[in-house]
Fold this sequence. Notes:
Blueprint: H1 7-15, E1 42-43, H2 47-51, H3 57-66, H4 69-85, H5 92-100, H6 103-115, E2 122-123, H7 128-141, H8 153-168, H9 173-176, H10 181-195, H11 200-214, H12 220-228, H13 243-259, H14 262-267, E3 273-275, H15 287-297, E4 298-300, H16 301-309, H17 316-323, H18 326-330, H19 333-337, E5 340-344, E6 347-350, H20 353-371, H21 376-401, E7 410-416, E8 419-426, E9 430-437, H22 443-447, H23 451-462, H24 472-484, E10 496-503, H25 513-524, E11 537-540, H26 541-553, H27 558-563, H28 577-588, H29 596-614
Parallel strand pairs: 1-2, 4-5, 9-10, 10-11
Antiparallel strand pairs: 3-6, 5-6, 7-8, 8-9
Helix pairs in contact: 1-13, 3-17, 4-7, 5-8, 7-8, 11-20, 11-21, 11-29, 12-21, 13-20, 13-29, 20-21, 21-26, 24-25
Amino acid sequence: MGTKPNENKLEKIFRDLIGPVPSLYVPPFVRVTNQKVGTKFIVAPRWSDLTGDPPNPQEFWDVLQRLPMRGSLVAISMVSLLVSRRSFDDPIHATFCKDLLTAERLDDLKRFLKKNSHHPDAYNLFTRIGILWLLRLALAVASEGPEKKEPQQILGDLTLMANDYALGIRSDVNRLKDADRLSLLVEMLPTWEVTNPPDLAYGLSSAYRMFQILFDGGDPVVKTLRGKLPIDFASITFDGLLIEDYIGCVFGIYAWLNNLEVSKLLKGEVSLVIDTSGFLSQVNFPKLLFDSFVAARARTVAELKVQVVREPLAGPSDLTARLSSGAFLTDVLALRRFPLCRLDTTHIVCLDAVFLVELLIYGLYWRILDSLAAKKEDGDTFLELWGRLFELYLGEMLTFHYPLSFLSPLKLDLEYTGGQIDALLDLGGDVVIFEFKGSLLKNEAKLSRDTEAFKKEFALKFIENQKGDPKALRQLAAASAAVAEGALTTAAPPKRIFPVVVGYEPCLESFLVNACADDEFQKLLDPRLRQRVRPLTMMSVETFEIAVAYTSAGDISWPDLLERRFDPNDKVVYYSVYQAIYDWRTAGNRDFRRNEFVLQGFDSAMVRVLQKYKGVCA
Length: 618
């Protein structure tokens, strides 16, 4: 049976949120040495690593069919929750190996580690991509008959076998060893996108402010665009809930899950199964609204099975054929849409807490856009509206950190002959130009590992759209030229100009995205300006929110931060701005600095939710 949330602990979670731990699966042929700073490489051990042979398809099928459906979904969901809450080097990963591997497999793992002198930063039995893979395999094949007790080590064997398929097939050394940068980018992108979840506090704060505050603000552009859309944003609901109710519901579930004690979960003393008959009742959340949310975002096992598999699997050969498909390996759309599984009439389990949160951070954007699909003009208008809201949000954030005054280095919404600049920081000899883009890339382009599909979608969103209108990279090339040529007045003729794209799209942080984008940017830039205009920087809004906290406080300057990612040949390195900040912090043993603007926005959202459902101010 599920347990109910404690009101005081729920509020504690509101205050104690921390960000996600970045991690990345890379193909096993990559040789990595130990390092204090730099990208962290987490690799999952495979059945073939430990036994010397790939898993037999019949044996793999048989083990999957031994899994009790309900029990396995709850167990894998618990592992997913714990992995999402702990860092890649947390002792819990060793606990999983000790508890879930047989003595024979554990000995095999020790021998394997001893035999291999070059290790990644961690060998973790469970990775996020592997866990999502396990959930889908269980839904596809596990037994739906009466629950039979199986030793917990069955999950360990199954995980090792699944890792062979999830990690081995896509890591074909011969296919990738001579690949160009763009091919490597699209190869790693699907895994990165799933493995690096958003920070809840940051994501919720930006989504809430854009939907709730700026939508109803006085910006004339927003008012005009809103008036063109066939939507009443004052009363719009999602799954039958107003936006504040939606936040309260998502956050209530997430906070409760993250408040479950790890030791008690591992011992089976508490369960992450939610009893819907009384959940959130202690914080006065209306049961009718909670039931509406569950009805929309939960599916039964049978319903999820159809969503995940689409066509039933008849046996090992069907399973092997499906596992050989790159598209099937990365298709988590069903779990993104329905992160809750209904076990019976009054009990649900959250299969993935990250996807639950993403319903709010990214899901609302896609659902509004999908609702306008019948008329392309409406969809285009919403994208323009969303882009304007994104510009306003980041403009507010920059103003918070660099208050506008006669001496302020910040200039917003600058117009010049032939173009416009979203934001500019005039730092004397250095100028940083920002272009803000609220667009999200389509999942088909990010997850298909199709180079041409990615190139086309990226160009439409960040270079030039179907109408021929310039987008971020073209706009920055023109703006950089305008600043260099004095078309925009600066405090002094700049020696260096830094063009920066800040996007709502999280995959701008993925391996090689910025490097490949700079290749395109250089084609658009006047060659005579390449000494003064530095390489292109791309970052996600979350990384920008982190960076501006350090730069505005004087911990590091924008030029110093951005230059850290350019090699001696003025090429952008493969890793992200987020990684550069992490390395700088680690090398200097610096504390993490939160963005006060974001935290105030988060507090404001939570206060409104708490006032509404508890009648008190946090």
